[in-house]
Amino acid sequence: MANNETLQLEIDKQIAAGFSLDEIRKNLLNQQFSTDEVNSALKRNNVASRAKSSQGIGIMSMLVSVYFIFSGIMKMSKYQSGSGLYIFGLVMMLVGIGGLIYKLVDISRR
Which are the contacts of 62, defined by CB distance < 8 A and separation ≥ 6? Predict the structure, then answer.
C-alpha cells in the first residue's frame, strides 16, 4: 500500500511540475516502478487529462513570439527613432525574441 501512495505522490508532483503523460510514464519507470503499477496508477488518477499536453501550446507560443518580433519591426520601420511608438516597437521585438528563446530552450530540455 505504501508503494501505491508513493506512486500517487510522485504522479501528483510531476503533474504539478508540468510534465507530459509520456514524460511522467518514463520518469516512473526509471524510478523502478513496474510497468503494470505505472499504467494502473496513471489510469486510476486520470493523468491523461491532468498532465500537460506535449504539443500545441509550444507551437502557439512560438507563433505569438514571431508575431511580436514582426510587429515590433513594422512599428520601428514606420516611426522615427526616439518616438514613443518606435520604442514600443523595440520593446515588442525584444519581448518576442525573449519569448522565442525561452520556448526553444524549454523544448530542447525535453
Answer: 100, 103, 104
Instruction: Give the number of other CB atoms < 10 A from CB of residue 77.
Output: 9
Q: What is the pTM of this model?
A: 0.51
How confident is the model over 59-84, as pLDDT tens digits?
778 889 999 999 999 999 999 999 99
Query: How many Å apart are CA 73 and CA 80, to the nearest integer?
Result: 12
What is the separation, in whole angstroms, between the first and last Cα of the chain? 32
* Closest of 47, 41, 99, 44 to residue 70, by C-alpha: 99
From start to end of the chain, where are the E strands? Answer: none
Rounded to whole angstroms, the Cα distance separating 71 from 73 reads: 5
31, three cell numbers? 524510478
C-alpha cell at 110: 525535453
